[in-house]
Fold this protein.
Amino acid sequence: MRTRSGRRPRRSTRVRLAGLAAAIGLAVLTGTDDVDQADPVHASHPTVDTSTHEPAGTAPAPDTPQDAPQGPPQDAPPDAPQTVVLDAARPTRLTIPAIGVDAVGITDLGLRADRTIEVPPDAETVGWYRNSPTPGENGPALLAAHVDWQNRKGVFYDLRKLQPDDQVTVERADGSVASFTVRRVEQHPKDRFPTQAVYGHVERPELRLVTCGGQFDRAAGSYLDNIVVYAEMTGSRHRDEASGR
C-alpha cells in the first residue's frame, strides 16, 4: 500500500539484535570450485524476523525520531532531480555496459538454514536477495553474483573495475526499466562487512552489487574480501520506449 505521496508507509518492525557484539554482514559469495564451500562469516546469527527488508545479522540503524527531517542524500548533488519511486516488480535482466555484463534470468536468493544468504548456482547467474526491495523501490536492493566459479569467470568478475558515473540498468517483470548510476566502489574484509551501509534505511531507490574479491584463501576455500558497488536510481522508463518491442 502507498500513501498519496507515493511512498510506502514506514515499517515499525525494525530488527533488534540484543547482545550482538558486532554488526555482521551477509555471508557472501565464494569464488571456489564448489558453491557449497561458501565461507560464511563465522558469527552467531540470532533468530530474527526476515519478513521485512532487513536480512539476518543486520544491526538496527540508530534510533531517530520518525518525523525527523532528512538531509540531502550523501552522494547526490544538491540540485539532483526527484526520482520516481517504482512499485515492486522482481528484476529480470541486469546490464552494466562498462564491464560487459548482460545477465538475463535473475534468480531469487533466500536464506540458508544457518541464516546466511544463498549464492547463485553457477557463474552466469545473478541473484536478487528477495528480502531486500526490488530495484526501483525505495531502499537498498541487493544483487549478488560470483567473481568466478568452477574455473570460469563469474558474471561479476570485473565488478571491482566500475567507476563513479558508470551506468547500471535493471529490467523488471512489469516491463519497467530502472536506471542506476554508480556512486562508489568499496572493498572490505568479510569479517568487517559494512552491514549498515549496505542494508541500512535510505529514503530513495538504491542498488547494491556484491561479489567476492581480494586474496583467495585456499585453506578456507574462499576469498577474504567483498567488493560492494553502491548505486542510486537516476531514471526509469518502460522497456518498449527504447527497444520498440
